[in-house]
Write the structure tokens for this entry.
Amino acid sequence: MRIYLAGPLFTHAERTFLAELRDRIRDIPGLVPVWPGDLFDDQELGDMGHMAKEHIFQGCAAELAACGLVAALLDGVQVDDGTAWEIGYAYARGVPVVGLRTDVRNAGETAHSLVNCMIECACRKIVRGVPELLAVLRDLAASQ
């Protein structure tokens, strides 16, 4: 099963973390990770000018539509807006989303919220660490 790995790609730390997570997901039998960080070349995007945004949108939307599972990084004071869109798109299509929140801060509307309620309720499960995420993904892959 193809799994879309959603999360921000704007800093070296984000890219490094998500690339390592992609590699660990790749080791789970039955899962083929799709990560936007692998889909686009920074030089190519730079050469595209104003057309780059449409290229990124179309490429990510097409890959997301071809996946049967989503893992989403939910760290930060507010979930990355592109990640939030990808979660909503997956939810609307009935594709399960597993969130990963390693951030120690809560960021939702209530004292019991981890993130914004629209994100939290769209996720089938939110886990607090990579080992737990990998275990959940292993179970989901095995049940398919």
